[in-house]
Amino acid sequence: MSAADEMTHGADKPWGEVSPEAARKLLVAAVEAFAERGYHATTTRDIAGRAGMSPAALYIHYKTKEELLHRISRIGHDRALEILEAAAEGPGSAAERLDGAVRRFVRWHAERHTTARVVQYELDALSDEHRTEIVELRRRTDAAVRRILNDGVKAGEFDVPDVPGTTLAVLSLCIDVARWFNAQGRRTPDEVGELYAGLVLRMVAAQK
Amino acid sequence: MSAADEMTHGADKPWGEVSPEAARKLLVAAVEAFAERGYHATTTRDIAGRAGMSPAALYIHYKTKEELLHRISRIGHDRALEILEAAAEGPGSAAERLDGAVRRFVRWHAERHTTARVVQYELDALSDEHRTEIVELRRRTDAAVRRILNDGVKAGEFDVPDVPGTTLAVLSLCIDVARWFNAQGRRTPDEVGELYAGLVLRMVAAQK
């Protein structure tokens, strides 16, 4: 699945927040180019060409290549945080909230795997200021999952000897779906979400 | 930790199988360059320069940049397979073998995280012939873990409704250590290995 497919077929319209249309097209082209060749091997000329535009037209919307990467990373991290905070603050027992968080987080990483790979693997290419901003979003993402685990421990629903370590493992398991997921593979994003929710509930020894 | 540190301080001397010394130095330089800038943004001239050699000296040992990536990928995958097959065929109960496999596999991905990232993220840059060879090694790696899980299920030690899916998740969890592991971070490679072995034994509902 290409970044363009991810844009067109996504249930929640990724990049829908980017306007005008030319800016959105350039972002999709940038995701594809970064995923294929890496950030450093991609030029703004490559990105403009992929979007069927001139380099001058690109500069109207993005001053630098790093600005494109930052937009991609920011939107990706905002979405991840939104999914996990909604789960953390939602109704239901800790087990139900953890189940929902894992299912939705996995589905996002499977459906948007091209975007997620760029977001995860090119963090070092961000400017210091932008990296600091993204690290703060990641801290909040981590806190949302930790909150569900702590709630479950307090309620006697979970048995988790190492909450920070288990939080790290749960997030890592979900994020790595972006690396191996193959749209032509055997499992749909929903099926992976279901499998992983079950495994994570075992990791926290959730009461049945 | 840089690729050079990984070479010098590794318990089992990574790249020790590469000789002569000039070929080994070039491999270390290639891992560092690929990890920093990506495969496509790196030239053989960059790699030679990092190793303090001329491009002509590089060509004595490696005909192409792809040959360097293939050597790195092959050695990395051979080592991963060696770790997991030794665990699968070793003595002990299925739980003991799974515990050992996860500890050693995690430790390798933590200690050699720079190498492991290159090996995992640059698969698409291999030639068709080399990619086919590496995919076969990955199939055998997967089979080694699946064998331990199947042994545990047969012996009544584990309860695993979906063995292929759980195998995938166990390997993914361990591999992703290479992405997030930080040598300056809070946890040592051994501590991550211990945490993850415990979580994986819960994933398979191992009898205590």
Automatic annotation (TrEMBL), chains A, B:
Residues annotated to bind DNA: 43-62
UniProt xrefs under Gene3D superfamilies: Tetracycline Repressor, domain 2 (1.10.357.10)
Pfam families: TetR_C_24, TetR_N
HTH tetR-type domain span: 20-80
UniProt keyword list: DNA-binding
Protein name as catalogued: TetR/AcrR family transcriptional regulator
Organism ancestry: Bacteria, Bacillati, Actinomycetota, Actinomycetes, Kitasatosporales
